[in-house]
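Entry 12.
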Amino acid sequence: MSQSRFERDTAVRRVDEHRYLGTVDPGWAVIDGAAPNGGYLMALAARAMREGVAHPDPVTLTAHFLAPPQPGEVEIDVEVVRTGRRHSTVTAALHQDGRACTRLIGAFGDLGQADGLDRMDRRPHPLPPREQCVDATRLSAEQARSSGAVPPPIFQRLEHRMPEGMMDWAVGRPTGRGEIGGYLRWPDLPAVDPLGVLVVTDCYPPAVFNLGGGAPVGWVPTIELTVQVRRRPAPGWLSTWFTTQAVTAGYLEEDGEVWDADGELVALSRQLALAPRPA
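Predicted 3D structure (tokens):
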């Protein structure tokens, strides 16, 4: 079976017991020619981090982004801190040309074997039926080209369906609420695996863009991102919702939820980022 683009672009090669090589592909940048997406870097590192342990799934993974790597080869240094029956704790450092770019720590488990208490007091955000949503992948490409820009590379890696008006911040009509979300899936895989979920939690335009009220649109660099993966997604479309409710002294949070086609919670995320500055 041929590999998907995501699998190819996050492939790693083992050099020795603690060192792997990967390649940052420019097709996962937030802006054409700019830094690669943080969730993509997490997935690339996580593929190396799980190689030396018996637990394949990132149950929780935190990344601190120190400096953006450029497209091209990167080194991933991995240390297994502890391995037990249920979890392995692993750290990683992603380097390029001798410069530290990202540091990560995570607990890996086997979500296919997880069992225990289940209780769910939250529900997916109410979205319109998918057939009533806008093809946001196509729309974002059209909006970018109409202004003479290149469509956001990472947004084109997935098929997006979003509620009407959710992307109108790009044409000067934000919703007035720090919210964004919708449905998505890979175009070339039946399901998103736990590594792909890391990308999903960081693949949308920032929710802060929809705030309006004079809030600027611009570069929103992530300082730290934590993703908790609760289960392997069922095949089909995922539904997502991301919110920003506090912007203080130039810092903001973005909280996310990811649900699968069976209505099961797949992941929770939170990131700390810098708010865009007025031009």
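Annotation: The domain at 5-111+128-274 is CATH 2.40.160.210 (Porin). The CA atoms of residues 86 and 109 lie 6 Å apart.
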